[in-house]
Amino acid sequence: MAYLLSKRGNAKIEDGLVVKLSPDEAKNVDRLSKREIALRSRGLAISNPQGVLVERVNKTFAQHYYPLSITDYAEAAYKNEKSNQQFPILSIDAHDVIGCDFKCQDCLSHGGLNVQSLGIHNFDLPIELYTHILSEISNFSSKRGFSGVKFEQSGEGNPDIFPKRAELIRLSKQRFGMNPVYVTTGSKADEDLLESLAENASFVRFSFPGLDQRSYNMYSGQSHYLFNDAIEKIKKVIKKRGTYKRERDLLIGIRAPLRPEHEYLYSDFAKKIKDLGADAVQFVKILIPEDTGLAEHLLSEKAREDIIKAKSLSGNDFSVALPHELDYIYYGRAIKDKESFPDVCYSSYIHPVLTGRDLFVCTMNEKIYSLNYSFGRFTGRKGEIEDFLSKDNLARMSKDIPKSCNACCSLFDNLLINKVKQITRKKINEELKFYEVIE
Ligand code: SF4
Ligand code: SF4
After folding, report:
1. Does the N-terminal peptide bond of residue 88 adopt cis geometry, omega within 30 degrees of 0?
2. How many CA atoms are closer than 13 Å to the CA of 414, on its beta-carbon side?
3. Phi, psi of 321 (to 5 degrees)
């Protein structure tokens, strides 16, 4: 049974129409936690005032939004098109430390080298300045009708080494009502940080360079933090989550790459993670330069079978997510049809990137390298974000993007927002409703 969830009233589809839930169904749906909804999410549905389904978007990955939902993105696009309301920031991606104790072969931040041209001083972020930045961002969004900005911290390296990480996570949640999302290997996470995560985070995602001891060491280029150490860290967070009684809203997931060495390991690994009591495993394609022969990176039949076996562990309480196309070990984010791609980068409006003290448009390396793509640099001046994201500055900044992008790290978000804006334009006199579909 597919339910449709909306802040304005839940529903279901019957005979092609969106209809009310029975009292029993309504009770079942109301009982669901945010975490359960994310694990069961299957995309977006849009209906018109008569309850006719206008659009269904299946290709989605709920943990990409969590703890927000695809409907937050769709509604921001709707309000922008319908009432010309400026986009709030829904999510901020913070790259706030340089340096890592790992030396992963396929590290996208190249050990912090990507951003060193910005100057090391740019990464000097005393907690007072960081507090100011969080206050600017959350005020900006609440003035535009949105609270609970997702605050994703993934470092530009290992985020655990930011000296006041535990305090920052507490502050963001308890003072600014943000939703902290934390991406780490966990190698430098001390007790205080784990405690703060268990108490305040919405999502903790552990990155695994490899799926067993051998490949973990080989691909992380270090031997001080082992596969079993990483497993122990997950166990600790799960236990502390229980202490804070946050099983309903703290999602704990693992992201791990598809690699030739993992041919037989996927299903065992996913089972291990499920048995620990974590919520999700995401297997991802690793980035291979586009000029490398794809044939070298074909997934074997055995690997594919084992991945499908891992996927079969998914259920209402556990999710195994796979790339949309299970073919090559290849990361495809190329903009295939440039003509139909929006000429404005919506992602940069709703999901800018904080790199050091600068607010950037995007996480693509060349965009972070270049100050041409910075909306502005935070200095501590009250209200400065309104200048960074003023209509004039946005128009100037968006001028050459995404024309200058051949691949897009927010491909799906840009296409989704563009689609919702197009539908809204076509049905400008109708009041559309947006639902998250769960099965
Ligand atoms: S843990 Fe992350 S930041 Fe560190 S080297 Fe590996 S990929 Fe790079
Ligand atoms: S790659 Fe280009 S279009 Fe995509 S998010 Fe970045 S700046 Fe925007």
Report:
1. no
2. 24
3. -105, 140
Q: Using only C-alpha atoms, what is the Rg of the chain?
A: 21
Domain boundaries, the chain: 3-86+411-438, 91-257
152 contacts: CB under 8 Å, gap ≥ 6 = 91, 92, 93, 94, 181, 182, 183
| Model pLDDT, residue 227 | 97
Cβ atoms 141, 149 nearer than 8 A: yes
How many CA atoms lie less than 13 Å away from 195 in the CB half-sphere? 5
Token pair listed for 48: 């018109």
Does the beta carbon of 344 lie inside 6 Å of ligand 2? no
Distance 404 CA to ligand 2 centre (A): 9
Distance (Å, rounded) from C-alpha 227 to C-alpha 232? 9
Strand partners, 91: 150
Ligand with the closest atom to the CA of 221: 1
Which string of DSSP letters, residue by residue, matches 169-214?
HHHHHHTT--EEEEEE--TT--HHHHHHHHHH-SEEEEE-S-SSHH
Is the CB of residue 364 below 6 angstroms from any atom belonging to ligand 2? yes
**N residues, the chain:** 439
Which ligand sits nearest to residue 230's alpha carbon? 1
Q: The whole model's pTM is what?
A: 0.94
- Ligand 1 atom nearest to 155, measured from its CA: 3
CA angle 338, 85, 345 (to 5 degrees): 20
Question: What CATH number has the domain spanning 91-257?
Answer: 3.20.20.70
pLDDT of residue 367: 83
Inter-residue contact 200 to 169 (CB < 8 Å): yes
Token pair 């305090």 is at which residue? 167
Q: Is the C-beta atom of 104 inside 6 A of ligand 1? A: yes
CA–CA separation, 94 vs 368, rounded Å? 12
Which parts of the chain have pLDDT scores under 50?
329-330
Distance CA 259, CA 299 (A): 8
